[in-house]
Automatic annotation (TrEMBL):
Xref: Pfam families: RVT_1, RVT_3
Source taxon at top rank: Eukaryota
Protein's name according to its UniProt entry: Transposon Ty3-G Gag-Pol polyprotein
Domain Reverse transcriptase: 208-389
PANTHER family associated with the record: RETROTRANSPOSON, UNCLASSIFIED-LIKE PROTEIN, TRANSPOSON TY3-I GAG-POL POLYPROTEIN
Protein's organism: Cajanus cajan (Pigeon pea)
Cited InterPro entries: DNA/RNA_pol_sf (IPR043502), Rev_trsase/Diguanyl_cyclase (IPR043128), RNA-dir_DNA_polymerase (IPR053134), RNaseH_domain (IPR002156), RNaseH_sf (IPR036397), RT_dom (IPR000477)
Residues in RNase H type-1 domain copies: 443-576
């Protein structure tokens, strides 16, 4: 496998010689042990990080990915296949003879994860102003760098009060609005008294440094989101989500991290600088300040930002634009800038002092301030954007490499949190199921009930048609002398037959009727105001709740013809007086007289 990877990168390996494994991995991975029985048991390296002399970042990433993928593959096969032991039966195959293409390392070059740093106090004993330089510097060079730092100490800021901000003519952050977006005022949030006290202290500090100012007549209002930092102090963040949604995208191109990492390698000396609260050095456009208004709890009122706060959309693009304007002729020569991270690299150590002076002169001209506590001057090895950079090349940052190795060694895989939650629920249902045996349900066709009522001078009649699940129809024609209204009659018709269906064991029913009022009142689409109808409706709903499934449908009078004719026959609307004597005379209320349910029925 190693031979195949080396050939892919353009190296010839002799057929009669055992190929060396050239490690592009950090030192802690080069001694990682693979599972026993693999084609090779140990990774070894001839000289620390010598591979960086011929690998750029893309080759480095490709080579690393192939090695780790091979390790994962062999680990997965470890339990399924048997491997023959190596003939020497050694724990490792090691040969420290040079390959012939390495660059000779200087004696004073000491490869460490990062250079050790020492403090430099640019203030007094009582008021210390600390920054850091490399401990590995020679005395003369160390003194020259310290002299430059003292000369340009006005380019650093140890507190907000020392920040002047960048000139508005150079850059300012604007907040144009998308056409049609309306201002949003967020609802007030509540905070505990302890948090309110800390918010008040931070607001007073921001007012003192003139980063914010009081405001009135706000159209946009955002809320405070307090964040407690590790040191116990509070950072005031603002919920700008509504404002960001109304802001168009800034298409300013951002630098490519991979290109920058390759550009800063190969330097004999580096200095890394970090902007002091970088966003706070850029002003908000005067006309757009009112859009950044935020509400404070208690009696603190509302305030608006004068400088560019964290949380605004594309604030990073505005800061990158400012850095490119300030260092436009230095970027690419000996400087690389990624938002507020600055790297000054010199191919020769003697040129580094001049490069520092040119950089500080530009910062002083525009009032740009650096954070001295995050700066490191005159280093050889340092971390930048997740990689360790030095003269010989790059390395993966140690924590990232350890995590990659852990994933391959233990066959770890990433599982989304949603999948984990779903699996927990499934396991719970499997192991804590209450059903002892499976229950089978038989699905049957629903009973159908057609109803209608008819009121006439001769009497009041009810017509009903019931169709069983087997399709057998049964007709009911009932008459009563009670003084029901037309709608009451239809309610009583339904109540009477529902009692019968309940006794027959019906579970699913479909009710058809041409009375839109009754159907809509039961389904709560119409409001019922009549007291007598309210009583009928309550009894009706109580009966419907005893069934598993109930469906009420309104149909036309023609479709409900059979139930309509039965009701009219019972009321005497269509037949002679003699024929009425053969009908049932219902003396009591239909819903409570169960004896009449078996009288005068005909089955077709």
């Amino acid at each position: 496998m190693v031979e195949r990877v080396l050939h892919r990168h353009g190296f010839e390996v002799g057929q009669n010689q055992r190929p060396y494994f050239i490690s592009a991995l950090p030192d802690y991975i080069t001694q990682a042990e693979l599972p026993r029985g693999n084609a090779f048991t140990w990774f070894t390296t001839m000289q620390p990080n010598s591979i960086n002399t011929w690998m750029n970042q893309d080759q480095y990433s490709s080579f690393l990915a192939q090695i780790l993928a091979y390790m994962a593959e062999q680990t997965a096969k470890g339990d399924e296949e048997d491997y023959e032991e190596l003939e020497p039966k050694l724990d490792c195959v090691f040969n420290d003879s040079p390959l012939g293409f390495e660059k000779e390392m200087s004696e004073d070059f000491k490869m460490e994860s990062q250079d050790p740093l020492e403090e430099v106090n640019m203030g007094s004993i009582e008021n210390k102003k600390i920054t850091y330089i490399s401990k590995l510097l020679k005395r003369c060079l160390r003194e020259e760098i310290i002299r430059i730092l003292y000369e340009y100490r006005d380019c650093f800021a140890w507190d907000y009060e020392e920040m002047s901000g960048l000139d508005r003519s150079l850059v300012e952050h604007r907040l144009p609005m998308i056409l049609g977006k309306k201002p949003v005022k967020q609802s007030p949030r509540r905070f505990s008294p302890q948090v309110i006290h800390k918010i008040k202290e931070e607001i007073e500090r921001l007012l003192k440094t003139k980063f914010i100012r009081t405001s009135r007549y706000a159209e946009w209002i955002s809320n405070i989101v307090p964040i407690i930092k590790k040191n116990g102090k509070l950072r005031v963040c603002i919920d700008f989500r509504d404002l960001n949604a109304a802001t168009p995208k800034d298409e300013y191109p951002m630098p490519i991290a991979k290109t920058m990492i390759d550009a800063v390698t190969g330097n004999e000396m580096l200095s890394l600088l970090d902007g002091y609260s970088g966003y706070y050095q850029i002003y908000i456009a005067t006309n757009d300040m009112s859009k950044t208004i935020f509400r404070c709890p208690g009696a603190l009122g509302t305030h608006e930002w004068v400088i560019m706060p964290f949380g605004l959309k594309y604030a990073g693009a505005t800061y990158q634009r400012a850095m490119n304007l300030i260092f436009h002729d230095l970027i690419g020569k000996f400087m690389q800038v990624y938002i507020d991270d600055i790297v000054i690299g010199s191919k020769k150590r003697d040129d580094h002092l001049q490069h520092l002076r040119l950089s500080f002169e530009r910062m002083r001209k525009h009032g740009l301030k650096m954070n001295p506590l995050k700066c490191a001057f005159g280093v050889i090895v340092r971390e930048f954007l997740g990689f360790i950079i030095h003269q010989k090349g790059i390395e993966v940052e140690k924590n990232i490499g350890k995590w990659g190795l852990a994933l391959t060694e233990y066959s770890l895989v990433f599982v989304p949190l949603r999948a984990i939650k779903g699996q927990v629920i499934v396991d719970f249902l499997v192991y804590h199921s209450k059903l002892i045996e499976e229950v089978y349900y038989l699905t049957t066709k629903a009973w159908e009930l057609f109803f209608d009522g008819s009121k006439h001078d001769l009497g009041t009649g009810i017509g009903l048609l019931i169709i069983s699940p087997n399709g057998i129809p049964t007709k009911f024609s009932l008459r009563t002398k009670y003084g029901y209204s037309d709608n009451q009659v239809k309610y009583e018709a339904l109540i009477t037959r529902l009692n019968l269906l309940k006794e027959l064991g019906a579970k699913n029913i479909i009710i058809w009727g041409d009375s839109q009022l009754v159907i809509k009142q039961v389904t709560r689409e119409y409001k019922c105001t009549n007291e007598k109808l309210i009583e009928c409706k309550s009894r009706m709903i109580a009966l419907l709740n005893s069934f598993d499934e109930v469906q009420l449908e309104h149909i036309s009078r023609n479709t409900n013809r059979i139930a309509n004719e039965l009701a009219q026959t019972a009321s005497g609307y269509k037949i002679s007086k003699e024929c009425l004597e053969s009908l049932v005379l219902v003396e009591n209320e239909l819903a409570y007289n169960q004896e009449c349910l078996t009288v005068n029925t005909s089955t077709i």
